[in-house]
Design goal:
Elements: H1 4-13, E1 18-22, E2 26-29, H2 30-46, E3 54-58, H3 63-74, E4 78-81, H4 88-98, E5 102-106, H5 110-117, E6 125-129, E7 138-139, H6 140-146, E8 161-166, E9 176-180, H7 181-194, E10 202-205, H8 212-225, E11 228-231, H9 237-246, E12 251-254, H10 256-264, E13 278-281, H11 288-298, E14 302-306, E15 314-315, E16 329-330, H12 331-334, E17 341-345, E18 358-363, E19 370-371, H13 375-381, E20 387-395, E21 401-406, E22 411-413, E23 416-418, H14 420-428, E24 433-443, E25 447-456, H15 464-472, E26 483-486, H16 500-504
Parallel strand pairs: 1-11, 3-4, 3-5, 5-6, 6-7, 10-11, 10-12, 12-13, 13-14, 25-26
Antiparallel strand pairs: 1-2, 8-9, 9-19, 14-15, 15-16, 17-18, 18-20, 20-21, 22-23, 24-25
Helix pairs in contact: 1-2, 2-3, 2-6, 4-5, 7-8, 10-11
Length: about 500
Amino acid sequence: MNIANWLERAAQRAPDKLAAIEEGKHAITYGELDAAASRLGNTLRAFGIRPGERVSVLLANSLEFLIAYFGILKVGAVVAPVNILYRAGEVKYVLNNATPRALIAGSDYLQVVQDVWTECPLLEHVIVVGGDPIPGTYSWRGLMREASPALTAVDRRPEDLANLYYTSGTTGRPKGVMISHLNLTQGIEFEAEAWQFTADDHSLYTLPLFHTYALIIPCLLPIYAGGTQTFFALWDTGTILRTISEGRITFFAGVPTMYVYMVRHPDIQKHDLQGLRVCVVGGAAIPVEVQKEFERLSGVRCLDAYGCTGWVSSVHPMFGPAKHGTLGKSLGDIYPSMDTQMRVVDDEDRELPPEQAGEIVVRGPQLAQGFWKLPEITRRDYRGGWFHTGDLGRKDADGFFVLVDRKDDLIITSGYNVYPREVEEVLYTHPKVSEAAVVGVPDSVRGQTIKAYVVLKTGQTTTVEEIIKDCREKIAAFKVPRVVEFVQELPKTATGKIMRRSLREQTPVS
């Protein structure tokens, strides 16, 4: 088993078919992508890279990222991407934790590489993509020109690692997530069936490939099925809407922030989005008002999917009933052949009855194997054969799961439990609000005070009093924010997930 076989299979079946289009300009066929991946694989083999060893990638979304990904896998090595937004200290941490012998880095990140290389004693080889290499490094272009384009992926056991992906660090220091060839194979097979993805589909994304959401869903899914993908390194709402309209895009995967930007774009109604077949939203819960508005403007169902570090455990059925504001149903409940279960448990890991909130736990063959070099955390989070997500949720009477919030984000004010997402949903209904985030800040009397950070729509103005008054009319008094701060933007991870932890770390209210 080796997931690089997916690329080889697609190249054999349709070598001249477009596999990927970068920025709407640079394209590569399946035959070209497979040959390029083989060239890189042969280069790594000449470096002495052996199966099971890690190779890191410090690249923005690009054709070179795809080539590097499959080239690393072809020799049986493990892909360990590095977040391109990391500073030198963070890059050094990941490189010394993953211990790659080789690093493939874009020329834009060479300064960071120079700053940390001497402090990463196990890093032997650095390949530079674009620009001129620095002393001691290799030119991507030169290596690719000299290497052979023929290489068949080595066989790996199902449990062998394919990827070592690092968490975004929203809850602390990034942790390496161990993803095996079997995990990826099962996950992709489940997703292909759930969304009926075929070789006729064309996906679009700007999610960063160093994050598993982008890699596993809109990137690997087309290669598994023999479809086509278009990607951009940066988000631009007008470009995305135009590409969907003109590029025959059938499949879009994004985070809630992207859907917010699209429905708020003044020209969205000028673009024809009817070619879309599936729109997936993940990474965080999408505000219901935004979800409904996108569906109204596009005519396409916006399907929530739930999972962690790339894998999916619940979806909305492609056809039939769906419920806004829910995560859909467990894959195993919709498709009995998919051996995936979800349930809601209390602090003693006892399953809770419908409508009662607790922690969401999941099990299935697509789940990652655990955390790299963190056996205690792995045992804690995977106890009893179930992965404990850290998400609070409930299962309704119809079997749909509802995300309440992160356990760490729960606000306790004057003895009352308040879930930020519930308050945020209310804020999103205000006609002048574009984005919102709610956190608990220390309060000497109440324990915590509810604070809302609000981004207004372009050209709109309002007052704190108006926002609070609107909330008082829609939710119980103890859930109403006592403090509202208007901001130009909210802090987000590279995938667009709002970072509540960063907001909590700002000046507290006493």
